[in-house]
Amino acid sequence: MKSILHLKDSDTFCLLPFMHTYGSADGNLVLCCEAQEYECGKGGKTLDSRWNSKEYKEVRKALVGGTKHKACHVCWHNEKNGIESNRQLHTEQHWNEFAPLIQLNDDYTVSNQPVWFELKIGNFCNLACRMCSTHSSYKRAQDIDIIGKYSGFDNQETKLVTPDDLFAILQSDVDWTQVERLQFTGGEPIINEMHYDLLYSIPREYRHLIRLRYATNLTHLKYRQHDLIDIWRQFKHVNVKVSMDGAGAVYDYIRVGGSFSTVANNMNELKNVDNVDIAVGLTIQVYNVFALPEFFDFINKIGINFSFVGSFLLQTPKYLNISVLPQTWKDQICDKLSKYNGKVNIHRHDNFDTIIEYMQKNDNEKLFWKKTMPYTQEMESRHPDSITFMNLLKTHGITI
Ligand code: SF4
Q: Is residue 31 part of a domain?
């Protein structure tokens, strides 16, 4: 048995390949969300044949021995550029909790099962958000002719992708007494029967030992015969990160098929459940950057601490990134953001400073006229609604 406890300050060691695994949409095990091209034990019929596969052993050996394995290139790139990597973040946040659980053998197998499963449940989703890809929502495939025209047809997913094999293996092989954390992301987990089957396969007497985590659109608290609050009460703790990109009409515009009032009601109902914490996942993009103050007013009103809002600046597709906005609009938006009184914290900076700086430093206006507006208009013609991008800008105080 090898000890890893002296490796906390190593430049290469990472906890994740020793205690965590990520199930991809098509049912392969990969190291983490940042290393999805490196598949481990593909096609293996048991959890152990995947978890202790030659790919996993090769990475573990490299990371213990001080070698920057190529599978983890995103972390090495970020660290080289002074950006905190996933590896560093997990070391900082989880070392004390998880390092002592790792049982590493001389051949770089580990005797512990993953104590943290992060599972992407495919691309089955009930919404078709305007910035989303067909990889995350199969529903977007209905507009593939428009999306492909502006984003390219090569990298589109035209199939419904589901991780059936992996979920069957998990149901039969996981020793739930070893699992500390079970995390679901999508597609949309709460409308996915595989997700419920896996939860029900956990013996009742072990459920109270496990923490659940979700990235969800929270469009339902009851789905078919499943009552999520009843189910969640049986677990130790549940962290529900609600994906929402605006309040009111901005939400309804971006999240096609969703209803802001339904989600807000569901959030209010969940606030009364003792073992559930609500967080928010916000994707900042051309369709909402002008409405961020109103969104944070809503977050404040519903009683969620601003520190529980995780924001992400949309980079793909590029034509929905905030750098494309015309300069006269950017100036008005920056002025509005700079006057906001609430104490928001985005990307670890006070107020909306990083958003303002990013918008003013990056100019991609040509793309706005070439792609953003034509894409927006084609989508609006295909799915006519009283809400349009131009209306939203006007009602949020932007003169166009
Ligand atoms: S080093 Fe980075 S990419 Fe590799 S497993 Fe750790 S977090 Fe993932």
A: yes
CA-based R_g, the chain, Å: 22
pLDDT of residue 301: 93
Considering the domain boundaries, does residue 376 fall inside one? Answer: yes
Q: What is the mean pLDDT of the chain?
A: 94
**From start to end of the chain, where are the E strands?**
20-23, 29-30, 39-40, 116-120, 181-185, 211-216, 222-223, 226-227, 237-243, 276-284, 309-313, 345-346, 349-350
**What domain range is 164 assigned to?**
119-395
Instruction: Say if residue 285 is in the same domain as residue 378.
Output: yes
Q: How many domains does the chain have?
A: 2
What separation in Å is there between the alpha carbon of 26 and the centre of ligand 1? 20
The preferred substitution site among 55, 74, 80 for testing ligand 1, maximizing ligand atoms within 8 Å of CB, is: 74
φ, ψ of residue 349 in degrees (nearest 5): -120, 150
61-101: pLDDT as tens digits: 999 999 999 999 989 988 888 888 899 999 999 999 999 99
pLDDT (0 to 100) of residue 64: 97
pLDDT at 353: 86
The reply to whether ligand 1 has any atom less than 6 angstroms from the CB of 191 is no
Confidence category of residue 311, pLDDT binned at 50, 70, 90: confident
What separation in Å is there between the alpha carbon of 184 and the centre of ligand 1?
Answer: 19
Do 127 and 71 belong together in one domain? Answer: no
17 lines ligand 1 (CB under 6 A): yes
